[in-house]
Structure formats: structure tokens, C-alpha cells
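Here is one chain, start to finish.
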Amino acid sequence: MAVASGRVQLVTVRQRTLTMARWRVLWITMAFAFIALLAIVRILYLGASDQGLRATSFADALLPPRGEIVDRNGVPLARAFPAYALWFNPKALGEDGDPLVRSPEEVANKLKAIFPDLDEKKLAAQFAAGKQGYIRRRVLPEEANRVQEIGELALEMPMENDRHYPQGSMAAHVLGYVAADGKGRVGMEQVLDDKLSNPATRGTPVPLSIDVRVQGALEDELARGMKLNQAQGAAGIVLDVDTGEILALASLPEFDPNKIDARGQSLMFNRVTNQVYELGSTFKPITVAAALDAGVIRDLGKRYDASPVKVGRFTISDSHNLGSSLNPIETLIHSSNTVSARIADQLGPERMRRTMMDLGMNERPYIEIPARGFPLWPGKKWPRLTNMTVGFGHSIAVTPLHLASAYAALVNGGIWRPATLHKLGPGEAPKGRRVFKQSTSSRMRQLLRTIAVYGTGRNANAPGYRVGGKTGSAEKPGAGGYKKSAIVSTFAAAFPMDKPRYVIIAMLDEPKGTVASSFQRTAAWNAAPIVGRLVPRIGPLIGVRPDDTRDVDISDIKPLIPEAASE
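Its structure:
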């Protein structure tokens, strides 16, 4: 009986064990089924909602978060890259714990040693108040290592995608910057915002017309001119006369797009495209060209009265006595206001106004960036005095970019084309519109060259480069009239004049008479030398090598130039 009872108990234990095992299997199966059900529900939810559409594709993951901007030769101007940020997290050690091991003042002092531009007192106040936030958005790896050495857990270093400008402040007014919201501001970053952000296009770098080699040289020479002449600002442009492409555009002082602060914000105004100036005597070649084109000037040897011009209660005079009469060539060489006014008067306001309109002087400059100044335009009906003063660059205010495009039309055969910051391929140059006859343009190349050889442009006459151009020194308007102590000095040039390729505009805002300019404030002494130094620097880089055996032929007008006749 005992043996039978033991067997019964053994069977009972086995049954219980088997039953328990079956229940365990059942519970495990049910758990897996529940998890699978949750997964299926999640998949169905994602499929039915737009969450799945926002999932990152493999191709999208390989693309940069924002497209790259490059110069015409592929040199990076703006690119996205992963970078460290410095963030203060007051809850790093919990809700009730003190976030800093050291005092706020001590931590702020240590960060100041790493980042000298930080406001130490403001930073210490932020730490003391326990206010979370960014301390710095862009931190270099070596700086990140130094921050880690401080040993404060509340100083966190998250990795973020950042916009970086490897050329620093170069071409800042062309590029603009990317704000904290990820949107482009000011320059081509704003213009190209959609293209640079679109996954379909952001993988391909966008080439601009800018050449960093030319841009760097232009900025360097403008900065040098500013310093030598104690000017408050400068502007410059290098423009292809046949396509309208801008190889360099600079407005000084510049800002650093890698570091947008209050000072940077104050320097974003673009003097080349947004500021309008009365550009003075640089308009005189336009007046002469319009008169040649209209047949008002048929003989370059014709003498014009050079005495002061009286119109009503106003008198137009020259800065100094240039003699009793001048021919059109001497008018440009010596920059005569009186004869320029008389030529404009003979041309008449309708034809003068039409020429200025054909050159785009009555509308915002043609360029992609949003900062484009509207000219101060005399209106529909020009009184006689207005027409005469426009003839020598007053009563009308335009941007330096307007002037560059006008000079391109003067020397390229007479065709005006809009300026562009996009790189153009072969055959992509706009057709443009004819403003001057080819014969007029050919004559203007001669006249502009004579100014650089015999006139006020001598300091721009870089040997071998056949530079031609015109100076302009205009008083700035102020309350109650023009300010005698403040002028804008400009030199508008083209080279090489036997076959023009590029226009250069160099402008100084309120230069002072210094030792470097022989105590002169006029463009012949401060703006022209900038061009004279710049051309030999950039010429070989853009396909123009010095050649003393070539020049534009001025033999037919030399007899009309006293300086040339005495050689």
C-alpha cells in the first residue's frame, strides 16, 4: 500500500509540474502576442499618420543639413558642419542640488579665460540665478577640451549642426549669414534659402560669380586705402564687362558671419548696393558719351567756354582756373564742371534723362541680394539747372553698382547688362540692351585711357595693364547744403583698355588729407591709387597679364592734348 501511495503522489507532482509549465508557456505566449500586437498597432499608426512621411530616408541622412556655397572656382564660402555648443544646465545634479561645484564667479572667470569676449559679470549672474541657456553656440574642439577640464557637470557640450564661413569675414556682405532659426539673412544665404534647405537640391554646391582671390585683394586694398586716408568707410566692385558677373564686391567695415553680435549687426549695411551717393565727376564720361552718340559732339577739337556758368541765381564753376576754353578731351582730363555742364545743356534734358534711364539709374540696381538702394532721381521733368548738374554727377544719387554697370556699357561696345552674383556658363550672359553705338564706345575707351595717362587718373595707371578711368570727388549733402569737410572719393576704371575685360570701382567715404595722400582729399590722390595697386594683383589671376607692347590707339586724339603734344 505504501508503494502504491508513493506512486500516486509522484504522478500528482508530475501533473502539477506539467500544468504549471503549460501555464508558464501560455503566459509567455500571451506576453509575446501582446508585444506583437503593440508593434502592429504602432506600425499601423505610423502608416496612417504623417509621422512616417517625416522619417529620414537613407539618402537624406547622407546630405548636409544646409547646402554649400562656393566661389566660381569651387572654393568653399559657406558650409554646414557638426560643432560643439556650450550650454548651462542648472538641473544637471538634480532638482535640489547646486548645479556648480565652484562659485558662479569662479566658473565665469575660468570661462572668460577660454573665451575672452564673454561678459564675465553677466555670466556669473546667469549662473547665480540658475538660468539655463546657451553660453556660446560655436565652440572649437580645443576650446571644448578646456571647458571639460573645468570639471563642472552643468557646463554641457551638445553637438549641433552649425553654419561655418571658412573665409571668415571675406565677402560677408555678399554671403550674409544664417540666423538661429536656420533661415538665411541679408545676402545670398537669404536669396538661396530654399535651394540650400531643399533635400532635392542641397546636396549640390551653389557656385557664385565671386572669385575669392580677387575678393581678398579688393578687400585688402580698400582696407589699406581706408587706413592711409582715415576714411570712415569704403566700397569696391570688380565686374566682368561682357557678362555682368561680379568677381568681387566689398563694403567696409565688414562683419564676421561666424560671429553675429551687436557690432556685426551695425556693420551689415551694404555701401555698394544699398547706399546711394552723388558720385561727382565719374558721370562726366557718361555725359560726353551721350553727346557723342547724339551727334552733339562731332569734333573733339571743338573749344567750349570754360568760364563759370550762371543759371538763375546759381553759378557753376571749377575747383580752379582751367583756362578760358577746353575741348571735350581736356574737359575729361582736367575734370571741368563748367564745360561738362555746357555739353549737358547742349544735349538737353530729354536725351540726358533717356541715357540715364537706359543705364538703369532710375531704378534699384540689378543684383540678387535684397539690400538694393533706390536712386535719388530728379523726376520726370528736368529743369535746365538740374540737367546741367547731372552732367557732372550732382542732383542724382546712385549706388556704386549702378556706376559699375554704366562703365561696363561705356567700354564693352555699348551694351548694358544687369549685374549678377551667380556664376554664368558659356552662352548664359544676358543679351542686355544697347545704350551707346559701338563707335561711341570705341571713342570712350580712348578718352578714358587718356585720363589715366595725362589726367587725374595717373595714380591708377598700372604699367602694362592699360588702365583707363575717371576720378570723382563729391561733397556729401547735409543739413542746409553740402558739407565742405565731407566728400566721397571715387575712381571708376576699366582694363585693359585695348580690349576691356573688367570694370573696377573704388570708393572712400569721407577720406581725410593725410601724408599718404599728400594732404589731398580728392580721388586722384586716394581712390585712384587703390586701383593702381589692385590691378597688378588681380590681373594675372583673371587672365590679364601685363604687356607693355600693347595699348589702345590714341594717336588721332594726341594732337588735341597739350600734355601729349609737348612730349
